[in-house]
Amino acid sequence: MPERFISSKIDVKGQDYKLLLFGSGWRMCPGYSLGLKWRLPDGMTSEQLSMEEIFGLSTPCKFPHEAVVEPKLPAHLYAAA
């Protein structure tokens, strides 16, 4: 609900913790550490990533990047009881 910030005194330049995605400090999302791990596909190094861009309104990457997502904890801990 971004409209909750209309006519508020919140600093939109990153100095106010209410605008951080997962919060910060004691206000941090309790599930943050249970999140996901991101890595490159097997055998790929960061040096192999092409950072070439296509000129345009949004300047996307010329070649799509790939990433592998893995849970941080064992799979059985994410299952519903």
UniProtKB/TrEMBL annotation:
Question: What InterPro entries is this protein classified in?
Answer: Cyt_P450_CS, Cyt_P450_sf
MF GO annotations: heme binding; iron ion binding; monooxygenase activity; oxidoreductase activity, acting on paired donors, with incorporation or reduction of molecular oxygen
Entry keywords, A to Z: Heme, Iron, Metal-binding, Oxidoreductase
> Family per UniProt?
Belongs to the cytochrome P450 family.
**What name does UniProt use for this protein?**
Cytochrome P450
Species name: Leersia perrieri
